[in-house]
Amino acid sequence: MMKQEPIPTPHGDTREHLIVIGNGMAGCRAVEKLLARDPARYRVTIFGAEPLVNYNRIMLSPVLAGEKTFDDIVINGLDWYADNDIALLSGDPVIAIDRTAQTVTSRSGLTLDYDRLLIATGSDPFIIPVPGKDLPGVISFRDMQDVEHMLAAAEAGRSKGAAAR
What we know:
Layout: E1 16-21, H1 25-37, E2 42-48, E3 54-55, H2 60-64, H3 70-73, E4 74-76, H4 78-83, E5 87-90, E6 94-98, E7 103-106, E8 111-113, E9 116-119, H5 144-164
């Protein structure tokens, strides 16, 4: 959806490179605090598994209920990343960290060096291991993709109900 290409390192840029793994509320809040404290200290790259900007997951229920839209729950839009010279690599999660070489590698194969690394990946939902947990329609509820799946399932059910009348 919203993807920004990495910002090339300007020649002679001696700032420390901070890589943040996780584009959620915690990671971005930490970056906000670092920028407020010393805006010129770091060259920042943020990797996010989702192809979206930072949003408030707590507000997913109102999005599911139709009370809010995704845009209503965005915390940091693309302009925030651009205004702060942050490279956002969304939809490309980090799959390997080499602490000795101080590099991270993303699913797409991109490998970047870092001076500082912040891991703020959050958690994955737990679906209890009961019979039927893998059936269609059993959906976790953690991110916008889950909301989209639930809305699609509800629409499909509504369409079947209308056709049966």
